[in-house]
Design goal:
Elements (H helix, E strand, L loop, with lengths): L8 E6 L3 H13 L3 E7 L2 H9 L9 E5 L6 H14 L4 E6 L4 H10 L3 E4 H4 L3 H9 L7 E2 L4 H4 L5 H4 L2 E2 L11 H12 L4 H8 L3 H17 L13 H9 L8
Parallel strand pairs: 1-2, 1-3, 3-4, 4-5, 5-6, 6-7
Helix pairs in contact: 3-4, 9-10, 9-11, 9-12, 10-11, 11-12
Length: 247
């Protein structure tokens, strides 16, 4: 996967669920390749913000909850409108479960990815960059979509790439993994991590130090990060990384 300096995407997030919307925003914000410029509950709110001059620039990526568009026809129309308005915009559809009609409509309308929320979660930034690195007509689908995709006849679905699996860090014990995930993904302080895990702060410090060592040992990627990125930010990117070949 390309380094920090080679990918810089302005992202719009559209999801009617407040907690999902803000979780996606948080995960994208940790990863400096993806910058959220607008997050709204409805696509209509995004168009209103755009027409009202509230956005200084158009999006490179629109991540939208496909299930909120009330049917495949409206989903296709939304994707086509976005692609017609913004040159080379990439539309990523997220869904709670696979829907054959929505999947076909999104594929036909030119969506770049159709991913299930349970498959993607904390890996949303890496999934976005994975989709960005595909060829112009490429399509990215997640594991839960693949069985449904085989039921449909569409040339893009036949050639679709599958979302890579999370990188495996065999050296992370359950306790060390829990500590680094609470610290680097959830953003909790050492004290709050200690409270959550029922251990002392000194133990949390040692767990996080060991997690940094293990994560770094699996990567030859020091040049991929900006000089001002903190160890916590780098740990977030490493622990949420997907096994994607360089593009």
């Amino acid at each position: 996967m390309a380094g920090i300096g080679s990918i810089n995407l302005n992202v719009v997030v559209v999801d009617s669920d407040f907690y999902t919307r803000n979780a996606i925003n948080a995960y994208l914000s940790w990863d400096r390749r993806t910058r959220v410029i607008c997050k709204t509950a409805r696509l209509a709110d995004f168009w209103a913000a755009l027409e009202g001059g509230q956005l200084k620039r158009g999006p490179d990526v629109v991540i939208i909850d496909a299930s909120q568009l009330d049917g495949a026809t409206r989903l296709a129309a939304a994707i086509e409108r976005l692609r017609g308005r913004f040159n080379a915009v990439m539309v990523i559809c997220l869904a709670p479960f696979p829907d054959l009609d929505d999947l076909y409509a999104a594929t036909e309308a030119g969506a770049k990815a159709y991913l299930l929320k349970p498959d993607t979660r904390i890996h949303i930034a890496w999934a976005t960059c994975h989709a960005y690195c595909l060829e112009d007509d490429g399509l990215l689908i997640s594991a839960g979509v693949a069985p449904e995709a085989r039921k449909l006849s569409h040339h893009r679905l036949r050639r679709a790439k599958h979302l890579a699996k999370p990188r495996d860090y065999a050296g992370l014990t359950p306790k060390i993994r829990q500590a680094i995930e609470l610290f680097a993904i959830e953003g909790l302080s050492h004290r709050l991590v200690a409270n959550e895990m029922g251990i002392g702060e000194s133990t949390v410090h040692s767990y996080i130090k060991e997690a940094y060592r293990i994560l770094e040992s699996y990567h030859d990627d020091k040049n991929d990060y900006l000089d001002d990125m903190s160890a916590q930010e780098i740990a977030f990117m490493r622990i949420t990384a997907l096994d994607i070949p360089d593009c």
